[in-house]
Amino acid sequence: MEDAVQTSFKFLHAADIHLDSPMRGLSNYENAPVDAMRGATREALKNLVNLALAEDCAFVVIAGDLFDGSQRDISTALFFAKEMSRLGQRNIRVFIVFGNHDAESQLRTMPRPDNVTLLSNRRAETVEVPEFGVAIHGRSFARRDEDRNLAQTYPVATAGRFNIGILHTALTGHAAHENYAPCSVTDLVSKGYDYWALGHIHDFSQRHENPAIVYPGNLQGRSVRETGAKGAVLVTVENGAVALEHRVLDAARWDAGIIDLTAITSPHGMMEQVRDYLEAAADAAADAAGARVAAVRLTFTGRTPLHAQIIRDERNLVEEIHVLASGLGRDVWVEKIIFQTAAIFSQAEIAAREDAIGDLATRLAGAGQDGELMALIGDDVRALLNKLPAGLSEQDSQLLQAVQDNDLSQLVAEAGADLVAQLVEGD
Ligand SMILES: [Mn+2]
């Protein structure tokens, strides 16, 4: 007689772990919490393992992009193996398909602990987990730019089993992600499975109710393009019925803040807005599990009386914001500050003025069309650039590009508008 099959169990579905993702460019920033940010993908993996142990999960599935691509550092694979063996000690198995990033990783051939099963990249493979009455189907990417419909190669559901499909796919496409292993929700539903564990899209979303077709999002945000809480999906199966819960497991949080300065009239008021935003970001990043580093990008917007002062004092204001942030005594770091403010008066309004400022605005606005003047300015700028040391700031490289393109009209128009704004708001 067969052993009794457990028909109620939990499992964890994670994807896009990108272990040891370098978080490029971090060391270029002053005051960057480099260790906390670089170590975040490892901490998040530890959190995943801790959750699987705490919830007594039957098994864990990882739907691709476990590794981050062109890594060679063997310590990444060793760290992964060590964490997986913590699950192995409790007889918790781990099922993985490789995604586009793993396919090119040198770490893909590293030995893995016995409790870890990597599904084939030659064909869709089925693994039985008999003690829970589960059949797991999956297929790894064999190469990065997998453009075939892999879902079509998956078998139909195994009768009398709870069927799970693991697949790294863009489904029918996503603006921010490469369109790998394309397939439709209908392709997936047609297999008759109970749960589809997808990977590739870095945000949590459920694409279909029954069967559940789910992206858990990535385990840890890796840049300001990946904001908000990240984690994995805890799936509870009770006699075949599925319940989902997205559990937050990240160790650092990215945050993109827009601060509207429209109604702000003084630098003091601006700093109050910044303080409030950073406090809120630090609060949002912390939870019962404790504080996390919040990496915040601040973008200032709005037609504001402060615009002229921002142009004049940009460096000081930036410094003041960094000082304010580090003085909060919170785990918050300002990654970047972007000014997109505008003057209260439009260029057309100023040009319509019947005074010296209106006259100047009109002349400056037309300067870009004056070929002779542009050539003179171009010569001056080139001479100036030749005297500058290497390692230009972003703004300077914009200038450099404009000189190379032989088109300074845009920059002259902007500089003219800024100059006039300062005149108008200075009076
Ligand atoms: Mn990914």
Give the structure's gist in a few sentences.
The protein contains twelve helices and 15 strands.
Can you walk me through this structure?
The protein has 12 helices and 15 strands. The protein is of the alpha/beta class. The chain folds into 3 domains: 8-248, Metallo-dependent phosphatases (Purple Acid Phosphatase, chain A, domain 2); 253-339, no CATH class; 348-426, no CATH class. The strands form 3 sheets. The protein has a 6-stranded mixed β-sheet, with helices on one face. A 6-stranded mixed β-sheet has the order 5-6-7-8-10-9, with no helix packed on it. It has a 3-stranded parallel β-sheet with strand order 13-14-15. The longest helix is centred in the C-terminal third of the chain and has 21 residues, at 307-327. It is elongated and about 95 Å long. Manganese (II) ion binds at residues 16, 65, 101, 200.
Question: Descriptors for this entry?
Answer:
about 425 residues, alpha/beta, Purple Acid Phosphatase, chain A, domain 2, 6-stranded mixed sheet, 12 helices, binds manganese (II) ion
Write the layout of secondary structure elements.
Blueprint: E1 8-14, H1 34-38, H2 40-54, E2 59-63, H3 74-88, E3 93-97, H4 100-103, E4 116-118, E5 125-129, E6 134-138, E7 162-168, H5 185-189, E8 195-199, E9 204-208, E10 212-216, E11 231-238, E12 241-248, E13 252-260, H6 267-285, E14 293-301, H7 307-327, E15 332-339, H8 347-351, H9 356-367, H10 371-387, H11 394-404, H12 409-426
Parallel strand pairs: 1-2, 2-3, 3-4, 6-7, 7-8, 8-10, 13-14, 14-15
Antiparallel strand pairs: 1-11, 5-6, 9-10, 11-12
Helix pairs in contact: 2-3, 6-7, 7-12, 9-12
The protein binds manganese (II) ion (MN).
The site of manganese (II) ion has 4 residues, from loops.
